[in-house]
Amino acid sequence: MELLDQLERQLQALDQHSLRRRRRVADTPCAPRVQVDGRAMLAFCSNDYLGLAAHPRVIEALREGAALYGVGSGASHLISGHSRAHAQLEQALAGFVAPHLESARALYFCTGYMANLAVLTALAAADSQGEAEIFSEALNHASLIDGAKLARATVKVYPHRDAAALDALLAASSAVTKIVVTDSVFSMDGDLAPLPELLAVCERHGAWLVVDDAHGFGMLGAHGRGALEHFNLRSSHLVYVGTLGKAAGVGGAFVAAHASVIEWLVQRARPYIYTTAAAPALAHALLTSLDLIGGAEGAARRAHMQALIAQLRSGLRLRRWQHIASSTAIQPIVIGDNSQALAAAAALYQQGLWVPAIRPPTVPAGTARLRITLSAAHTSDDVAQLIDAVHALEALHTLSAPDAPNSTERAA
Ligand SMILES: *Cc1c(COP(=O)(O)O)cnc(C)c1O
Cytoplasm as a keyword (predicted)? Predict the structure, then answer.
């Protein structure tokens, strides 16, 4: 019982600090209008930025993929799980990002989390002395932080968006293998990494630049090719990670880089090798996602998204809370205190608006926030409704900060 007592105490501590997280059960497909725990809600939480997660063509492609390839892949890629669908998808992805990488090849992963673990561990393992150094941006996604740990490399953290600080760190490093890693769009703030500056610094110091474009792929650039297209970059130093469960609406991720980098991952990346290949039908469905992203429909959806972002940015007028007005679909409202952020999310929820409260350790202490994410599937009326509700709530909220959401959890 001692072990369980310890757990119970830790869980109670989470409650005391308003850090207990809970899951809500969605009964309907991922879309702005969802039914959650039996209630109709307007949601601003998903990363389904283009509204492809329930797109009729993608649904039909998944059905077709299951008919063609069955459901399970049956084995890892290196044993027998690598299907024609995976191969076609990798070829299509490589072609998609080819303008930005030398000798581009792509490798499909089950998740972005695994792709990031794979890239950092395998690149670090390529250092024959075992002395690779990883230079990690301060606000990087958890999967990059974990990948750096798993790589057992020396890790140096450089300040947010600070290419000059990175330059100094690289100059001071005597490591042969230097790996710089950054989110392109920061997942909790929505701002962009200064990739052209970072790449110039990396090329000067002979470092790899690993770009995690989880929130840029499908969204940035005229063709939705992501952050590299947005900044018009091309380099043999780039290792690109795109995820396919966000704008692409399905699931999984890919790494694109010079063919030799990809071959090394196939040979050495444990998160690639020692896991069952994702269902081939997912890869098959992703061919249709990719088609939509790169075509006229994708362009129209991105344009609509830009209009929604502009509407939110110009419409939101906050006094106490701070809107981090980004140029992307991620639009945080920083409240600060954990329990107040939680109370704000609960109050919006009461009104039928689903906006998540993000608390530490996902964001720094004292910066708990509402994280609004927009989707091209939202209408202008949806955004207007959100703006009105946030304005009314901020005015009210000055008065009190109840921690009611937790009491139900303690009772549960
Ligand atoms: C979501 C996300 C990931 C993980 O991707 P999954 O496919 O969901 O595992 C990695 N990096 C960033 C920046 C993300 O936002």
Answer: no
Residues of each domain in the chain carrying CATH 3.90.1150.10: 21-47+296-395
For residue 61, the model assigns a pLDDT of: 98
Contacts of 122 (CB under 8 A, 6+ apart): 264, 265, 268, 269
Alpha-carbon gap, residue 4 to 9, rounded angstroms: 9
246 CA from centroid of ligand 1 (Å): 8
| Ligand 1 contacts CB of residue 193 (under 6 A) | no
The 8-class DSSP code of residue 330 comes to E
For atom 2 of ligand 1, the residue with the nearest CA is: 214
Residues of the chain with CATH 3.40.640.10: 56-294
Q: Which CATH class is domain 56-294?
A: alpha beta
pLDDT digits (tens, 9 = 90+) for 244-272: 999 999 999 999 999 999 999 999 999 99
Averaged pLDDT, 209-232: 98
Could you tell me if the CB of 362 is within 6 A of ligand 1?
Answer: no
pLDDT at 404: 39
What beta strand segments (E) does 51-186 contain? 104-109, 133-137, 154-158, 178-183
Tokens (6 digits) for 245: 């469960």
pTM of the predicted model as reported, rounded to 2 decimal places: 0.94
What is the distance in A from the centroid of ligand 1 to the CA of 243? Answer: 6
Is 282's C-beta closer than 6 angstroms to any atom of ligand 1? no
* 167 close to ligand 1 (CB < 6 Angstrom): no
pLDDT at position 305 over 80: yes
The CB of 212 under 6 Å from ligand 1? The reply is yes
**253, β-bridge pairs:** 109, 243
pLDDT digit string, tens, across residues 62-87: 999 999 999 999 999 999 999 999 99
In ligand 1, the atom with minimum distance to the C-alpha of 251 is 7
pLDDT digits (tens, 9 = 90+) for 89-147: 999 999 999 999 999 999 999 999 999 999 999 999 999 999 999 999 999 999 999 99
CB 292 within 8 A of CB 249: no
Q: Is residue 362 a known part of a binding site?
A: yes
Ligand 1 pocket, residue 184 CB under 6 Å: no
Distance 394 CA to ligand 1 centre (A): 31
- Regarding the beta carbon of 99 and ligand 1, being less than 6 Å apart is answered no
Q: Which CATH superfamily is domain 21-47+296-395 in?
A: Aspartate Aminotransferase, domain 1 (3.90.1150.10)
Specify the residue for token string 């191969």.
Answer: 87
Omega before residue 332 within 30° of 0, cis? no
Residue 399: per-residue pLDDT: 57
